[in-house]
Write a structure and sequence with these properties.
Order of helices and strands: HEHEHEHEHHHEHEHEHEH
Radius of gyration: 23 Å
Strand content: 5-15%
Largest sheet: 4 strands, parallel
C-alpha cells in the first residue's frame, strides 16, 4: 500500500510539471489572429520593420533604445529572459550586436532567431574587414559592414524575410503580412528616390560626409557622397592623432565647412577634429546630429525608420549646401535640419 501511495504521488508531481508545458505548446500551435506574436528585437531599425509588417498581430520588445550603441551593448539578465520568452527574435546581424551575438546564437538552437541582413544579396554588401582592438571587442573580419539600413534600397530587401517568418507562426495572416510588406516597400522606394534626388543638389565638391565612426559607407554609395569616419566600423576602435590630422588636411583641401555628430556616439572625436581645423585657421561647424546605430526617441517621427532616414538625408543635404524641403520627405520632420 505504501508503495502504491508513493507511486500515485510521484505521478501527480510529474503531471503537474508536464501540464503547464503542454498548455504552452497548445497555445503556440493554436495561435490565431486574436493572439499576438511575442517578438523581441535588438535595435530600433529592426523593430520598426517588424511593426510595419506585423501590425496589430505582433507585440514588439526592443532591447536597444534611442541613443544606445549596439556595438557596445551587453545584454542584461532581464534582456536574456525576454529573449528566452519570445516566440521569435529578429536582429540585424553581421556582428552589429557584437556582445549580444553569443546569447542570440545560443537561444537560436531552440527557437527562431533571425538575422535579417542574411537575406540581402551578398554581392551588394560592403566589407567590414576590421580586426578586434581588444579581447573584449568582437572582430568584424569575415563579416560585412552591418550598417545596411543607411541605404534604404538595401534595408528594403530585409522586409520580406520578416513576413515569411511571421507567416510560419500565423499562417492564416500570411496574406496580410505580404500586403503590408508590399505597401511598406513602396514607401521605402519613394524615400530612396527622394534621397538620391536631394543629394544631387549638393555641389559636387561639397559631397563629403565626415562623421564619428565609419557607419555611413552604404549611405555614401547609395546617395553619391564620399564618406570618412573618424573611427572604424565598430565604435570599439579608437581614433588616433594621425587620423584626426589626415581629416583636418582633407577639410582644408576641400574647403568643407560641416562635419556631423552621431546620436549614439560620444562627440569627443568630432570636437577634436573641429578644434584641430580651427588651430590651422579653418573653421568648421557641426552640420547636425545624424542617427547612425540608433533611431530617434520613441513616439517621434525620427523614432521610425522612415523618419530616421528622412532626417539623415535632409540634414546632410541641407548642411552641405543642397536644396531640400524644410520639413523633409513627408513634411513631418520635427528637428532642425539646417546647421546653426
Amino acid at each position: 500500500m505504501r508503495t502504491r501511495h508513493y507511486s500515485a504521488l510521484a505521478w501527480a508531481l510529474v503531471l503537474s510539471a508536464i501540464l503547464p508545458l503542454t498548455t504552452i505548446g497548445c497555445k503556440s500551435e493554436s495561435r490565431t489572429k486574436s493572439s499576438k506574436i511575442n517578438v523581441v528585437t535588438t535595435v530600433g531599425m529592426v523593430a520598426d520593420l517588424v511593426r510595419e509588417v506585423g501590425g496589430d498581430q505582433v507585440e514588439v520588445i526592443q532591447i536597444c533604445g534611442a541613443g544606445v550603441d549596439p556595438h557596445l551593448y551587453k545584454p542584461t539578465r532581464d534582456d536574456v529572459l525576454k529573449i528566452q520568452a519570445a516566440d521569435i527574435v529578429f536582429y540585424a546581424g553581421q556582428k552589429l550586436e557584437g556582445k549580444m551575438t553569443d546569447t542570440l546564437e545560443k537561444v537560436g538552437r531552440s527557437k527562431p532567431v533571425i538575422a535579417i541582413t542574411d537575406s540581402v544579396d551578398p554581392s551588394q554588401l560592403l566589407s567590414g574587414g576590421e580586426p578586434a582592438d581588444s579581447e573584449n571587442a568582437p572582430s568584424a573580419e569575415g563579416h560585412a559592414d552591418p550598417h545596411l539600413w543607411n541605404d534604404v534600397s538595401l534595408w528594403s530587401q530585409c522586409v520580406p524575410v520578416i513576413a515569411e517568418e511571421l507567416s510560419k507562426l500565423v499562417p492564416d495572416s500570411s496574406e496580410t503580412f505580404q500586403s503590408r510588406t508590399q505597401n511598406y516597400q513602396q514607401q521605402l522606394a519613394m524615400l530612396h528616390e527622394y534621397g538620391q534626388s536631394i543629394m544631387q543638389t549638393v555641389p559636387e565638391s561639397s559631397r563629403l560626409l565626415i562623421t564619428s565612426h565609419d557607419a555611413f559607407s552604404y549611405f555614401g554609395r547609395a546617395y553619391g557622397l564620399e564618406v570618412q569616419g573618424i573611427q572604424g566600423i565598430s565604435t570599439e576602435s579608437e581614433a588616433g592623432l594621425r587620423r584626426i590630422n589626415e581629416l583636418v588636411d582633407l577639410l582644408i583641401d576641400r574647403n568643407v565647412k560641416s562635419v556631423f555628430i552621431e546620436s549614439s556616439v560620444r562627440p569627443k572625436n568630432v570636437e577634436a577634429l573641429i578644434e584641430g581645423a580651427a588651430q590651422r585657421g579653418h573653421f568648421v561647424n557641426t552640420g547636425g546630429v545624424l542617427f547612425s546605430d540608433a533611431m530617434g526617441p520613441a513616439g517621434t517621427y525620427e523614432g521610425t525608420y522612415v523618419g530616421m532616414l528622412d532626417h539623415n538625408l535632409t540634414t546632410t543635404a541641407a548642411a552641405l549646401g543642397g536644396q531640400v524641403p524644410e520639413d523633409g520627405f513627408q513634411s513631418k520632420l520635427s528637428a532642425k535640419t539646417e546647421s546653426e
